[in-house]
Amino acid sequence: MDSQWLTATEAAQYLKVKPRTVLKWAKQGRIPAHALSGSERITWRFLKSELDSVMLAPPSAAEYRRVQCAAE
To answer: pTM of this prediction?
Structure first.
């Protein structure tokens, strides 16, 4: 199992999106994220294996409809 921890910037590079997008997805619960305690601001960490699982999972029916509507 790959238990490599990534920062938001590293996760964004891995997923080929902007760090702001990764943070938005984390807050929305769209990707698994782990908040570190002990700071005033939330610092997120991401497990590479969890990101892989989410990205490789088949899309839900709701997500499929959303993508189809956006394409029309």
So the answer is: 0.73
First vs last C-alpha separation in the chain: 40
Mark residue 6 as left, alpha or beta (left: phi above 0; alpha: psi -120 to 50; beta: remaining).
beta
Q: CB-side exposure of 28: number of CA atoms within 13 Å?
A: 8
Element (H, E) at 51: helix 48-56
pLDDT tens-place string over residues 14-70? 999 999 999 999 999 999 999 987 768 889 999 999 999 988 887 665 555 554 454
The three-class DSSP label of residue 26 is helix
What are the residue ranges spanned by the domains of the chain? 5-71
